[in-house]
């Protein structure tokens, strides 16, 4: 199978994923509580996905699959959604979106390093090309690091490193669990349902700690739910589903998420008044772009 379409899906997903970094930072700057930013996304995703899967007539099959392996679904959904998004929202409370998007690119390496857990060979060529992307990320970070304190650096890096490994791990494990029995919409909805206990507990905590979310935060969270939670997640999961039999192509699709840093920088310039990138930042972004292009040109590893 050609890698063009999955790569295109991956790049489109990175565009819609960037809404999370931009909107989460916007909500934080306007006084929104980060726990609400995390929980509202998935609470809004639930009815949207229920409608989509229900209209496609696939809901009963999904519920049967969840009941059959309830704890497996809950465990890997907690990893793939909970340990992914909660740390990202926590970091957004302290650091700008461009830094989160840059650090998040560690997921490119993380996805490749997880290959042995699935009895696959490490995609060595993909890892080498991923280094070019990481170099680009480091250049962009170095350009702005003097603007941040040590605390901002740490909380903008450590939680995101956890998220960068949790997201591909949860995604790949659930692909193994679902096999060919469920489509992408069912899988995303199933993981949303299975992670509901976490979001309910966190929403109760947020209500006690910070009170009800503001109207602005509710609206922005709804936008994140549609763009990042539904559109981006379905696009990305569809892309990985198409190439799951090739660790090389899977690494390439995961590498497309490097586009998030570029989309986030321009989004923050447009909506949050961020400064125009310097020549050094553009150099770093070019490394990211070329790394993604080289990934797409790698021969398929059967």
Automatic annotation (TrEMBL):
Question: What protein does this entry describe?
Answer: Multidrug resistance efflux transporter family protein
* Pfam families xref list: EmrE (PF13536)
Give UniProt keywords alphabetically.
Answer: Membrane, Transmembrane, Transmembrane helix
> Which domain of life does the UniProt lineage start with?
Bacteria
InterPro entries tied to this protein: EmrE
Q: Which residues cross the membrane?
A: 7-27, 33-58, 70-93, 99-117, 124-142, 154-170, 188-206, 218-238, 250-273, 279-298
């Amino acid at each position: 199978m050609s890698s063009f379409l999955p790569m295109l899906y991956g790049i489109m997903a990175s565009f819609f994923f960037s809404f999370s970094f931009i909107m989460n930072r916007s909500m934080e700057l306007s006084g929104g509580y980060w726990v609400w930013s995390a929980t509202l996304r998935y609470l809004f995703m639930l009815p949207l996905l229920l409608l989509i899967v229900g209209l496609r007539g696939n809901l009963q099959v999904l519920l049967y699959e969840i009941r059959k392996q309830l704890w497996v679904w809950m465990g890997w959904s907690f990893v793939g959604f909970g340990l992914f998004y909660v740390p990202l929202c926590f970091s957004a409370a302290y650091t700008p979106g461009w830094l989160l998007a840059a650090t998040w690119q560690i997921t490119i390496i993380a996805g490749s390093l997880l290959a042995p857990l699935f009895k696959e060979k490490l995609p060595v060529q993909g890892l080498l090309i991923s280094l070019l992307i990481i170099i680009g990320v480091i250049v962009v970070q170095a350009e702005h690091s003097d603007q941040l304190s040590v605390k901002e650096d740490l909380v903008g890096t450590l939680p995101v490193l956890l998220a960068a490994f949790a997201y591909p791990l949860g995604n790949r494990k659930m692909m193994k669990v679902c096999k060919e029995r469920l489509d992408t919409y069912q899988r995303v909805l199933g993981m949303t349902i299975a992670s509901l206990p976490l979001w309910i507990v966190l929403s109760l905590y947020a209500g006690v700690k910070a009170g009800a979310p503001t109207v602005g935060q509710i609206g922005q969270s709804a936008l994140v739910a549609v763009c990042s939670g539904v559109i981006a997640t379905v696009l990305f999961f569809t892309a990985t589903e198409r190439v799951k039999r090739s660790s090389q192509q899977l690494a390439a699709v995961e590498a497309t998420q490097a586009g998030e840093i570029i989309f986030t920088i321009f989004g923050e310039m447009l909506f949050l008044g961020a400064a125009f990138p310097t020549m050094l930042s553009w150099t770093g972004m070019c490394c990211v772009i070329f790394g993604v292009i080289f990934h797409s040109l790698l021969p398929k590893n059967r």
